[in-house]
Specification:
Layout (H helix, E strand, L loop, with lengths): L2 H13 L10 H18 L7 E3 L4 E3 L10 H23 L5 E4 L2 E4 L1 H28 L25
Antiparallel strand pairs: 1-2, 3-4
Length: 162
Amino acid sequence: MSWEDDSVEMLRIALNDLDAPYTYDDERLQKLFLMACMYVQKDVQLNNTYIISITEVSLSPDPTTTDPIEYSLLNMAVLKSLCILYMSDLRLASGKGVDIRDGGTQLSLKNYYTEKSDNAKTACELYLEYKDKLIMQDTILGEAIVTPFTHDRLNILPSWLP
């Protein structure tokens, strides 16, 4: 497999876009994934440094063939892709969250906007949560540098300290 195949399949599963005709074509999903990879590479420390080109639709080295496979990049890029895509959908839906009333007939599209908003919030929160876990993974909880507080104008340290 390659990143092109895996990323598209992972995004299609997450978006429930599995049956042809697809809502999103493969190239659009690949470019979205690459854009998300740029964010991920900036946000967390990965095992490799990746060269990403959205215009050329390329990612090198291929995270699905590295040793070890860079699952962090793949998973986080899918979450970030969903966040970006849902935020885009939310902008489009913002003009559609209306109520229409005509006499005794009512048509409400507010749930459409709310659903899009919930999707965007969930995807973006999952990305941030995963990012925080990866950042904390390489640290020791409670690790800190502790020194005595000193200030020229405050004589709060005992006189026996140098």
